[in-house]
Design goal:
The chain is built from 15 helices and 23 strands. Strand 9 and strand 10 form a beta hairpin. The protein is of the alpha/beta class and 590 residues long. The longest helix has 18 residues. It has an 8-stranded parallel beta sheet. The chain has a 5-stranded antiparallel beta sheet with strand order 16-17-18-23-20. A 3-stranded antiparallel beta sheet has the order 6-10-9, with no helix packed on it. Bound molecules: alpha-D-glucopyranose. Alpha-D-glucopyranose binds next to loops. The site of alpha-D-glucopyranose has 9 residues, from loops.
């Protein structure tokens, strides 16, 4: 095993402020309610700025707060330059920006420009007639007719939220494309005026003081203009996943260069959501340092690891070997090729990690949360933490009924299943279990601030039920309390800053790649090495320390420190640690 194995032995990675930063994601509806209406709002975010600062992040990313009918929780925007009354006013945004900047924090808005709401003025105009100047701002196509003369959608693509991706408009006898809900029509990026309007919006927000954007499903904006049918993988389905025709489609890099040029001229931060693309060369075209498209992207390889053959809500056991090869692939590829990783395990679309991949039992939840903090937080890339992750929040409890769920994706899936397979009770039971593991709602329950009524989230009626765990898992019982997940995350983020060269700019090597229980890696900078090891199991695992590794100086651990006897480390349930190798470095020199 070699410790400094790659081409970047001299650690010539380009330095940049956005590489050194960590991001805290806020789901505004569920963060903090300041006016008692049951929905989180901007006033609530402002109230909690000191909490966020204490954690040690540098940037907040706020999920969409624009005017919206809220069919998809704000990812259906009806006006890019107005704030939804649910969240507050433009004055609140100004106050938020001022409050953030006063604390040295930066602000990312969520830019949703693959689609708008069908309530957006642009779409209202577009659908009003075929001759309207906005007609071409969306994607309209004529129907197809089958051999019986029945009208059919232009192709067989499915929507991610169920059914066909095309909605019929009887007034014009055409269909419009919506990759998501039918109330979220896709914008036509082929149309130059539309693109100019998007770019103008981006500038408008940057001029207002926003420091960058998270760009929603940005790799879907360029579609193959012949709109070919998707490959049929499951003949029992009516509609099919057409991503091969629009994920990183034909003109994606042209559009991203246009957008990236604007962002670069403001030195703005950019992270693009990029599902269904895993080809490193293709992704490098987006995140290559000199290409000036985007700084980094959210790749889905890890979070899709447990999606089964029939999609997200079908079961699949993930293997440690899968996780190791994914992490190793991206860590080394980006490092060696001038790209950059966005590190994440949770967000508003993903469930809680402790429940999904470890244990949320009273005995293990806290340990597991800290193990994942070590695993993720010491890798190479920009760290993204989702609200509540710093507390080790867990999925919604198994006894919650379907009537408690709120998420469009889950509810549409359930309705479709009950309609198509009404008598298949076994499948229904299995699918419900899968919702409890993977539904987006797991991450969307209100933030648990304290053990008061409704977890201190609101004084009113919360829009979404508070997780039953709030009395044992909340911020008040963790901030300033040694050993809590919050304090552990804080220490991890501080360590990244304190040892920037190693943890931000150091290279990555996986250790003991075949081991089924222990995830171990090193970070090395100019010969200085840190060993990180994580036990992913809830039982003891005896791990043979690689012969060229030593446990010299403990940097961080979720136990008091490792137990080692004759070269064997007894890794306890979900134990994680990082040790600096004395032979390789002295901490003070870094
Ligand atoms: C992204 C968002 C998700 C939303 C979808 C459609 O995946 O993260 O929440 O539903 O895009 O905008």
């Amino acid at each position: 095993m070699s410790l400094s194995s790659n081409a970047f032995e001299d650690n010539q990675v380009q330095r940049a402020w956005w590489k050194e930063a960590s991001v805290y994601q806020i789901y505004p509806s569920s963060f903090k309610d300041s006016n008692g209406d049951g929905f989180g709002d901007l006033g609530g975010v402002i109230e909690k700025l000191d909490y966020i600062k204490t954690l040690g992040v540098d940037i907040i990313w706020l999920c969409p707060i624009y005017q919206s009918p809220q069919v998809d929780m704000g990812y259906d925007i009806s006006n890019y330059k107005e704030i939804d009354a649910r969240y507050g006013t433009m004055d609140d945004v100004d106050d938020l920006i001022a409050g953030l900047h006063a604390r040295g924090l930066k602000f990312l808005m969520d830019l949703v420009v693959n689609h708008t709401s069908d309530q957006h003025e642009w779409f209202q105009q577009s659908r009003s007639s075929k001759d309207n100047t906005y007609r071409d701002w969306y994607i309209w196509r004529d129907p197809k007719y089958d051999s019986q003369g029945n009208r059919q959608p232009p192709n067989n693509w499915s929507s991610y939220f169920g059914g066909s991706a095309w909605e019929y408009d009887s007034a014009s006898n055409q269909y419009y494309l919506h990759l998501f809900d039918k109330t979220q029509p896709d914008l036509n990026w082929e149309c130059e005026e539309m693109r100019s309007a998007v770019y103008e919006t981006v500038r408008w927000w940057l001029n207002k003081g926003v420091d960058g954007f998270r760009l929603d499903v940005i790799n879907l904006i360029s579609k193959d203009q012949s709109f070919p049918d998707a490959t049929v993988l499951d003949a029992n389905q009516l509609y099919h996943h057409g991503c091969e025709h629009y994920a990183n489609g034909p003109r994606i890099h042209e559009y991203l260069q246009e957008l990236g040029g604007i962002l670069d001229s403001y030195n703005a931060f950019s992270v693009g959501e990029m599902p269904w693309v895993s080809d490193p060369e293709e992704i490098l075209k987006v995140v290559g340092y000199d290409r000036k498209e985007l700084n980094m992207i959210f790749n889905f390889d890890i979070v899709d690891m447990d999606h089964g053959a029939s999609g997200k809500f079908s079961p699949k056991d993930w293997q440690m070997s899968d996780l190791k090869s994914i992490v190793s692939k991206w860590q080394t590829f980006m490092y060696g090729n001038g790209g950059w990783n966005a590190l994440y395990l949770e967000n508003h679309d993903q469930p809680r990690t402790v429940s999904r991949w470890a244990s949320d039992s009273a005995e293990h939840r806290t340990l597991a949360a800290k193990m994942f903090a070590t695993f993720l937080g010491l890798q190479s890339g920009t760290v993204f933490l989702y609200q509540g992750q710093e507390l080790g929040m867990s999925n919604i409890p198994e006894h919650w009924e379907m009537s408690e769920f709120r998420d469009l994706e889950t509810l549409n899936h359930w309705d479709e299943l009950c309609e198509i397979r009404p008598d298949d009770k076994d499948l229904q039971v299995i699918t419900k279990q899968q919702y409890h593991i993977k539904s987006r709602d797991n991450a969307r329950t209100p933030m648990q601030w304290n053990s008061d009524n409704h977890a201190g989230f609101t004084t009113g009626d919360p829009w979404f039920r508070v997780n039953d765990t709030y009395d044992i898992c909340n911020a008040a019982s963790q901030v300033g309390v040694p050993g809590s997940p919050f304090e552990y995350w804080r220490a991890i983020l501080a360590l990244r800053k304190q040892m920037l060269d190693i943890f931000v700019y150091g290279d990555f090597n996986i250790i003991d790649a075949e081991h089924e229980d222990i995830f171990a890696y090193t970070r090395t900078f100019k010969g200085h090495t840190v060993l990180v090891a994580c036990n992913f199991r809830q039982h003891d695992v005896d791990w043979k320390l690689p012969t060229d590794m030593k446990l010299d100086e403990l940097l961080i651990s979720n136990y008091a420190g490792a137990e080692i006897d004759e070269g064997i480390v007894r890794m306890r349930a979900f134990e994680a640690f990082a040790y600096i190798q004395k032979d390789h470095a002295s901490l003070s020199r870094l």
